[in-house]
Amino acid sequence: EVIGTLFNVKNTEKLYIGGVFCVQEKYRHLDVGRKLLTECIAHAQGENFAVNTDIHKIGPYIRRGITVLETDWKSIEYETYTPVNPAVLLDKPPNGVEILAFQNSHLPAIYEYDYSLAGYDRKSLIEASCNEENSKTLVAMKDGKCVGFGSMKLSIVEYGRIGPLYADDPSVAEAMVKRLIIAIPEAKGFAMVTNNTNIFANMIPEKLNVPIHNSLYRMYKKERVHINTKKYLHI
Fold first, then answer.
1. Where is the YitH/HolE acetyltransferase (GNAT) domain (predicted)?
2. Predicted TM-score of the model (pTM)
């Protein structure tokens, strides 16, 4: 029986990211959470460790040594239990931009684009995401270069969940979201995550009439990592 979970993924040589922190209710207050977090922090081998958490877990994380709070931005979770209407979104990418169904031949262009955004190599994560079962991925190309890519995955509760999705131009992002929703008509709900500083990203769930489900705060063990959330539209 699984009574609790917490993962730790190595993003760079200096940064590890944790998430999916959950303990079954009947096992809470039995030191399970502390043990999970201790093991994940140890996996970081002394390097910086980051988590995204709702406001109720900030205190427990601080007590366990994750003390540095990101104060410039937070993530916004949008979620609805009913299907959304893609007709309210526009599909008008700029001239010269093609939005294509993902093929493995697109991976080199996607890797180059993603590196320009993230600043480090995420090839293994991207390849796994683009080829995940029960998902669709689109790639935006212009003059032979990737200018955006995005996925929608059918979750275990049969919601269509957008992410990752990156685009230089907000109209490209909106067009990709519209096409992804259409591509998975069996989705019984819809979910996506943006950040509160990116106006264009937050306009998409507003158009779809998807309510805010939760706010997530970024916390670090050692130091904040600068992320330019306005440089590109990301979901």
1. 110-225
2. 0.89
